[in-house]
């Protein structure tokens, strides 16, 4: 589904990614772990388009998208969720979802508004509430729900459980597990180890700007030396 090869990217003259490579198979969940500042969010933005690579290649479904703009990449089926961003605070939950569905109605419809509300009972309960009136966890759920209505081939999630109450974390993790079982392809960046271990098939631990370790979740759980060296835990 996705192949990233020798990727370099950053901001102005500041390099963040340096020779980053990864691959994700159709239907897999790949987790990304790493200390703050190693380039995890920059990696997702480089795949989705807001950050332009300076070298290397990105292929989606075998097609080179390295030089595509963000709108083209989004239309090709890449959806990026950045920590509760992207919702319209003055619109209701239902209106947020209907707008996302309307903008993507030309695509094959895997999910509709009713489908995502069934997946997020908490959002169904708050259907008439404005986006800005939701709790942090509810806003995160709404951001993910909107992304699903983009009918993505590849879902990119940046810190989906950051700052959430434990009960809400459990709900988000349960949702990600159900999405994984349904055949969605995703990359999950999260500081919480258990979120990544419980939802992802494989995990990449990033050093500064590149992949330091790639392992299955089960194997990495048993490698405290790796976790201590690269994550300080």
Present the secondary structure layout:
Blueprint lengths: L1 E10 L2 E11 L4 E5 L6 H9 L4 E8 L2 E2 L5 H7 L1 E5 L10 H11 L9 H7 L1 H5 L10 H13 L5 E5 L7 H16 L4 E4 L3 H7 L2 E5 L4 E6 H5 L2 H8 L2
Parallel strand pairs: 3-8, 3-9, 6-7, 7-8
Antiparallel strand pairs: 1-2, 1-4, 4-5, 9-10
Helix pairs in contact: 3-6
Written overview of the protein:
The protein is built from ten helices and ten strands. By secondary structure, it is α/β, with parallel strands linked by helices. The chain has two domains: 158 residues, P-loop containing nucleotide triphosphate hydrolases (Rossmann fold, 3-Layer(aba) Sandwich); 68 residues, no CATH class. The strands form two sheets. A six-stranded mixed beta sheet has the order 6-7-8-3-9-10, with helices on both faces. The chain has a four-stranded antiparallel beta sheet with strand order 2-1-4-5, with helices on one face.
User: What is the β-strand count?
Assistant: 10
Structural class: alpha/beta
* CATH class bucket of the largest domain: Alpha Beta
Order of helices and strands: EEEHEEHEHHHHEHEHEEHH
| DSSP helical segment count | 10
* Average pLDDT taken over every residue: 92
What is the radius of gyration? 17 Å
Q: What about the largest sheet? A: 6 strands, mixed
State the end-to-end distance: 32 Å
List keywords for this structure.
single chain; 233 residues; alpha/beta; Rossmann fold; 2 domains; six-stranded mixed sheet; four-stranded antiparallel sheet; 10 helices; 38% helix; globular
């Amino acid at each position: 589904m996705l192949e990233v090869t020798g990727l370099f990217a950053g901001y102005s003259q500041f390099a963040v990614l340096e020779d980053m490579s990864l691959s994700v198979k159709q239907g897999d969940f790949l987790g990304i772990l790493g200390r703050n500042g190693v380039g995890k969010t920059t990696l997702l933005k480089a795949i989705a388009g807001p950050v332009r690579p300076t070298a290397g290649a990105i292929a989606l479904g075998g097609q080179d998208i390295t030089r595509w703009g963000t709108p083209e990449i989004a239309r090709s089926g890449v959806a990026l969720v950045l920590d509760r961003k992207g919702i319209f605070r003055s619109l209701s939950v239902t209106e947020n979802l209907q707008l996302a569905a309307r903008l993507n109605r030309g695509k094959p419809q895997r999910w509709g508004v009713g489908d995502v509300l069934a997946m997020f009972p908490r959002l169904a309960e708050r259907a008439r509430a404005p986006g800005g009136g939701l709790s942090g966890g509810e806003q995160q759920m709404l951001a993910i729900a909107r992304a699903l209505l983009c009918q993505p081939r590849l879902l990119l999630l940046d810190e989906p459980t950051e700052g959430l109450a434990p009960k809400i974390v459990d709900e988000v993790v349960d949702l990600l597990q159900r999405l994984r079982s349904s055949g969605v392809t995703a990359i999950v960046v999260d500081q919480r180890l258990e979120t990544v271990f419980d939802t992802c098939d494989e995990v990449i631990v990033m050093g500064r700007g590149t992949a330091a370790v790639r392992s299955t979740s089960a194997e990495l759980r048993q490698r405290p030396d790796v976790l201590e060296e690269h994550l300080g835990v």
